[in-house]
Amino acid sequence: MRKIFLKVIVFIGLVSLNSCTDELDQQPNNAFSPETYYQSITDFENATRGVYSGFYGGSYYGTSFLTLPDIMSDNVILAQQGRRSNQFYNEWRYEPNSGWDMMFSPYVVTNRANLIIDNIGNLSDGSEKNNFLGEARAARALAMFDMLRVYCDTPTQADANSLGMPVITSSDNPSIQIPRPPLSESYQFVIDELEAAKALINEDNGVGRLNKNAINALLSRVYLYAGQYDKVITSANAVTTPVASIANFPGIWTDSNNDGVIFKLDQDRVLDGIAIGVDWSQSVGGTVRPEYVMAFDFFNMYQSNDVRKNAYTFVGADSGGNIYNAIKKMLGEAGQNNGVVDAKVIRAAEVYLNKAEAYMMSNPPNEAAALQALDMVRSNRYSGFVSGNETGAALLDAIKLERRLELFAEGHRFFDLKRWGMAIERSTVYGEYFDGSGTPVPAEFATLPASSHKFNLPIPQREINIYPDFQQNPGYGN
Q1: 247-281 as b/e, with b when 16 or more CB fall inside 10 Å?
Q2: What is the pLDDT of residues 287-342, one digit of tens each?
Q3: Which of 112, 229, 362, 464 could form a disulfide linkage to 51, CB 3.0–4.6 angstroms apart?
Q4: For the whole model, what pTM was predicted?
């Protein structure tokens, strides 16, 4: 991680970290140092845009962070006629020399945010200064939290030996926490940063940037992972965005509206063109070439009156005439390259589901409030909805099911199963075609026990080689 911990050279706004360490050691002719930049509102505005662009790294919200959590879980099945992309992860065969190197992009975001934080004193006091600082602190908190989800235990399943990830709070001579800090310290950093950012940031920066509403929403997620259920409820209750309506819901996924979207990552269709949906399928000449399709048993969980069924999938055939329940959710808007769509980081529906789960996990549970929060989502997804009035274990199961149905292909399923302490169990009966026929999942890749070390991905070996005291996750040859 030497390339991450070095002082970062910044270009105007859109900072670009080259993967080559040697190139980072040299200052290009058209670069400039933080000492001569970060002087004006325009400088900080461009730098803040650079922070957001860092989230779109290919191993981050640019593709992998949204797709792999479903590919590694039980929501999809490999299409045999596709390119077999990410099959390595689908079969849980990742190791330190070949794992998902998700660490780079979050640390890019962190360093860009730190440059703003370190230089914010150059601005005069006022709301603009506070807002830039709030956005930067919230962004680096989100980046850290996302790394914790990938590489670390979830607090509700952790023990005293559970490790966190190194926290970097300065761009100038950063303090590197190696060995890794305790998990509790890393989570406390995330919480403290988000709470501090909430007091600084604007009420409304638009859905394409962090704001007070987005921070409350993210806190409802972080506190849920941390098992602090009373704070989940408090944070969720502070969110003002309503759940998307049935009528508007399909348009979210073509970016024709932002109903129910609290925070998303805008992208320029011409300059960026980031195809976050291309790992699901490609459309060619009226046919579809799927990489993964919705697992048949999961597909059948969507009822006929559920607006998500047609918003998330479509029946399509490949050039050989094979028919699939192909994934439509991330194909994007008409007229754009396949899969180009804005990444939705958090939506109101998730916040209500976070709150519903927190009410059920409280001591004692508040079943009436949990059902009310759950039904706020269900009433906006099922035409002619009538509440099931579930109670007890059936209500908690209903909340978990609705979470699975709602957040498909948004990067949650693997992490949800992990924090619930549940195994991944895939059907060995159904194949990839629209009627369940085809090639089922081989038995050896059908189950990942809840106790498996594979729920925490390996620290990339090259980082261990640079920093031998950087502890590898248990189970990966250590």
Answers
A1: eebbebbbbebbbbbbbbbbbebeeeebbbbbbbb
A2: 888 999 999 999 999 999 999 999 999 999 998 999 999 999 988 776 666 778 99
A3: 112
A4: 0.92
